[in-house]
Structures are given as structure tokens and as C-alpha cells.
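Q: Hi! First time doing this. I have a protein sequence and I read that you can turn it into a structure. Is that right? Here it is:
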Amino acid sequence: MWVKICGNTNLEDAALAVELGADAVGFVFAASPRRVTLEQVAAITRHLPAGAERVGVFDDHDPESIAGVALAAGLTAVQLHGGFDEELLQRLGRRLAGGIRIIQTLHWPVGQESAAAWIGGQVERILGLGITGRVLIDSKVGAAGGGTGVAFDWTAAREVLPSATNGVQLILAGGLRPDNVSQAIGQLRPWGVDVSSGVEAAPGRKDPERLRHFIENARAAANP
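A: Yes, that's right. Below is the predicted 3D structure, encoded as C-alpha cells:
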């Protein structure tokens, strides 16, 4: 089970996440209370262990800008969080040429009955491009895509995702917490999980106990 702790704003939190067993730490360059700058992230990533994945979350659609920040900030992956843009994914795939991984986010509109079929179709389109196999499903509540602490419909997702995600590294996000991550993993059997607000003491500041319990519970659910 791949575990990503997102929304980091300081070295203390990012280093603790890795120490506790997280595979990846995320930094938000998109509009968010957890937004960070290139300079802030570069000052953090240089102190993290080489094996820890360092993921930047972007909502803009300029491949040159994204690639430039990723390289300068010491990232190992970029997460495209501004909606599925096929041209952006293709151009960024050529620009990064496999040197930096790409994660494509899809936003599940909470409360929309048609969301399951739409998400399934989007996953198939992404896989068909052959650029990335990593797809992150996050909750969308109103205009907010991510960081809301609200989960999407896991029961509906279970009906559509297994048939749509053959060969995909599916990453589950949206409303995950230490007390429900085991249930989410049990229902959807994702390749990975991603959490931000669910392990915070305040926006941009992690709670060490919640962080530890989340990682422990995710690992236990993946290896019952």
C-alpha cells in the first residue's frame, strides 16, 4: 500500500511522515490554504531521504511552468489537479520524458449520481494515452476539489472502478482519516491512499498522532 501525506508546508511534518513510513510527501502549488512556493519546497526536499517520493500538486495548465518548478524544487512526481487535460498530459509527458512521474487527478463530484460512469470513462481515456498509470480520485465539493475532508461515494466507486482500472495504480483521496482509511481500503482495494486535512492539527500543520495512526491503519488494512 503506497501512502502519500499531502499538504506539507514545513520540513518537520514532511520528515516525520517519511520517518513514520509514508512513501511520498506532497506539496501544494495550487490555490489552497496549504499553498507553498518553489523556494519553500526546495528547502525541504533537499533534507528528505532519497527514497521518499516528493510530489508537487499543480492546477495550472502550462507544461513548461510545471516542469520548471518540478525540477527546481527537487520533485520526483507531479500531480495534475486542475482537471483532466489531454493535451497537457501529452505535452508534459514528452517534456518530462519519464524522469519525473505524473499523477493525474480526477475529481468525483460529491452528490452527483452520474459521477461513477463519468469517472470510469475518464480513467479509460487516461490509460489509453499510455503516459501514466497513476490516477488519483479525489472528492469535489462545489468549487473545491481536494482538501475538503469529505469522502465521495465509495459504494458507487466499487461498482465502476474495478472494471475501468485494469493496469492502473489507483490512488484514493478525499475525506480519508485514521478512523476510516481501513474501511476505504477494504471497499476499494486501491493501490495507494492520499491524505491531507485528515491528519492535520490545523491547515498546513500535521498532528503527529493522527499521522502515525493513519499510516499504521493503512498498512494494517492492506496486509490483514
